Amino acid sequence: MSTHHTPRAARPGEQAAVLCGVGAALPATVVTNADLTARLDTTDQWIRSRTGIAQRRIAGSDLTTEDLAVRAATNALVRSPSLPVQAVVLATTTPDRCCPATAPAVAARLGLGSIPAFDLAAGCTGFLYALATAAGLIATAMAQSVLVIGVDRLASLPDPTDRTTVPLFGDGAGAALLRRGTAAEAGAVGPVVLGSDGSHADLIRAAHPGALHMEGADVFRHAVDRMSTASRQAAMAAGWALDDVDHLVPHQANARITSFTARRLGIPEGRQLHNVEDIGNTGAASIPVLLAQAVTDGRVAPGHRLLLTAFGAGLTWGATTLTWPNLPAQPVDTKGMPS
Ligand code: COA
Fold it and tell me: Tell me, what CATH number does 163's domain have?
């Protein structure tokens, strides 16, 4: 029996979570396909044609998940309205340690005081799960403003000798500041559609770093199905036609997955944002890094209608809508070393 619940759109005057800042941080070290061919039995042509990826950024042991999260959050907060951050929700599948969670340490390093701070794990859908959680904290008056962080060091997951999975992943972090506002405002997060199916947990799994197992073809099929369906549901719940969407903002799993998803939705290539060619699949960081880059390079402008969607291990998936607010450009932090 399906118990899937599609959220309803808030009415214009109703309270909503409103995006008021984005930022991102990427490691300084670039690993190109040519670098990989020196140590794996692969070619630039194979990687590009199957994944669209030309290079990725990799964190060394001196740049932890916590460091990347702090850098992305700092990058976001430096140009955001100076609101007191009242909670931190951090999505990651690759924390530096099992215990304690990453978010309290990040809040402490940011000097945010003794606010609630916690991690959640939802694979590459983590940012959308975190966004929904933050919206819930705001809706229930637990917090007036919430810092959401998506951070992953996915390059640590594959077996370094596995030519099929190593090329896919990169490291990075993205952050967004949400505040309490109304649904009529630009930046208001629309209805968030979320789902999971643990009966396919085996399709992407890693008992520990270096032990990733992935059934690539099955993952591909599920990713396209779930992202296109969730996108339709989120658009419909928001009262948008797919023709109204200025930019599809898909989790950057790989270029073929995002192209197939866009095609299913009837959204032309020119109306989807991408950066997978430069940074690979960065997991929970994927969507906020893409947004931070797009606002800075001008691909996204105030008033544009964005349809965000993601899919990941779990399986998990999600989608939501967002009308882009007027945010200042903020170049992504690529210095890559901890402060
Ligand atoms: N270089 C050269 N050849 C490679 C290779 C590489 N890096 N990786 C795999 N191959 C070979 C395989 O050995 C196989 O050879 P064979 O036919 O002689 O056995 C052939 O290419 C096809 O392998 P296969 O695994 O079937 O490739 P594929 O077409 O399914 O593509 C992926 C592999 C991983 C690119 C694809 O399955 C995919 O994109 N999956 C989704 C991955 C993803 O995005 N996961 C994260 C979701 S959040």
Answer: 3.40.47.10
Whether 334 is in a domain gets the answer: no
C-alpha torsion sign, points 17, 121, 82, 139:
positive
Assigned domain for 97 exists: yes
- Please give the torsion angle defined by the CA atoms of residues 98, 99, 101 and 107, in that order, rounded to the nearest 10 degrees: -130
Helix (H, G, I), strand (E, B) or coil at 112: coil
Query: What is the total count of domains within the chain?
Result: 1
pTM for this model (two decimals): 0.95
Residue 253 Cα to ligand 1 midpoint, Å, equals 13
The b/e string for 72-98 (b: 16+ C-beta within 10 A; e otherwise) is bbbbbbeebeebebbbbbbbbbbbeee
Digit-coded pLDDT (tens) for 9-36: 777 778 899 999 999 999 999 999 999 9
167-189 pLDDT, tens digit each: 999 999 999 999 999 999 999 99
Q: Considering the domain boundaries, does residue 336 fall inside one?
A: no
| Closest atom of ligand 1 relative to the 219 alpha carbon | 41
| Radius of gyration of the chain from its Cα atoms, rounded to whole angstroms | 18
Report how far residue 161's alpha carbon sits from residue 235's, in angstroms, rounded to the nearest whole number.
Answer: 41
Residues of the domain holding 71: 1-329
Q: Is the CB of 37 under 6 A from ligand 1?
A: no
Indicate whether 86 belongs to any domain. yes
Question: What amino acid positions are annotated as catalytic residues?
Answer: 124, 251, 281
For the Cβ of 281 lying below 6 angstroms from any atom of ligand 1, the answer is: yes
Ligand 1 close to Cβ of residue 254 (< 6 A): yes
Q: Which helix (H) or strand (E) holds 132?
A: helix 126-139
What DSSP character marks residue 191?
A: P
Q: Is 36 in the pocket of ligand 1 (CB under 6 A)?
A: no
